[in-house]
Amino acid sequence: MEKTIVQFILENIFLFLPIGMTGVVATIILLFLPKQQTTQKFKDVEPEYVTVLKMRCNIYTLVYLFIWIAIIIIGLASSFFVPTLVGAVIAAIPLVVSILLEQRTSKSKGS
Amino acid sequence: MSFIEIHQNFGENTQLLAPFIAVIAIAWMFLVFYSYKKYGTKMTLVYFLPIIIATLIIESAGVAGGRYYYSGYIFYLSVVGGAVPLIIILAWSVNLFLFMNLGKYCISKVYQKQNSLQIVFISFAAGVFGVCLDALEDPIAHYNNWWIWEESLTGIKFFNVPILNFIGWFVLIFFMSIATLLIERSKFSENRKILLSISSLAITGAVIFVVQGLIVKFFEFVGLS
What we know:
- The complex is a heterodimer of chains A (111) and B (225).
- With 111 residues, chain A is mostly helical.
- Chain A contains five helices and two strands.
- Chain A has a domain at 49-110.
- Chain A has helices at 5-11, 13-32, 59-77, 81-91, 93-110; strands at 49-52, 55-58.
- In chain B, strand 6 and strand 7 form a beta hairpin.
- The model of chain B has no long low-confidence stretch (mean pLDDT 93).
- The chains are: A mainly alpha (111), B mainly alpha (225).
- The interface between A and B is large, with 67 and 71 residues.
């Protein structure tokens, strides 16, 4: 009978527990070890932008668009039409959100 | 059973596996190269290495538990008894880096304060975006036998994919994003960030384990799984 990953880990707890404990101890040591090097302040880096079909979008949206289109093509080429089209609509949500947010920001900067 | 397995039956029992592998390989190479150019080698390790280790263990446990399996690939890795294709592990690192940065991009447009709440919002957005793409990818993968869910699995399914799979995607991406963002924004040196990102997997893994376990129990309790 198949097991969930949680059930599998519970059944093999003597394998996972020592690894987990080692990780927890190492994390605590790393968190509280005195800092020997200069600390670095986090700087959020803006992604690069590209213009596709007169729409300005960032590099991550473009990669997502590439994967989205490629998977849809594969789905349609497999003659698996309805699930592909339903999935395509759901998977378009991140694209729509990021493009709309970009356009909103561009407009507010322009005005 | 060895850690690395090389099979010679590429594409056996599958459809259009080569294009899928090509898409993942292109996306992975592009994002790793972009991360290396933009953030440097050490931060690229922080972004990609922990999720590779985490998903290697999780996917291997999933296969060893008999819920699903992969056939037709060439390179497999096995750590806890289940063989997982290398490309699947790389795909997970694409997922985390891509969705975390998409989440960061979207949330920073509506909530600029760089605090803990922003990290939660970004991680939530990353998890939701991950589930959105998986709603497209997983049914096609199942149909084309890129990975095969056991037919005996019960509960709610979305085009033959168990609903718990999507919850698992959300939980994994959400907590891995939180851990990655906390480490990224910490004041430690980059060397220590690499070590922390790997060692803290034990804590992130335990949290994912408990949350996923509770969700599975809840689904069993209400008869949805």
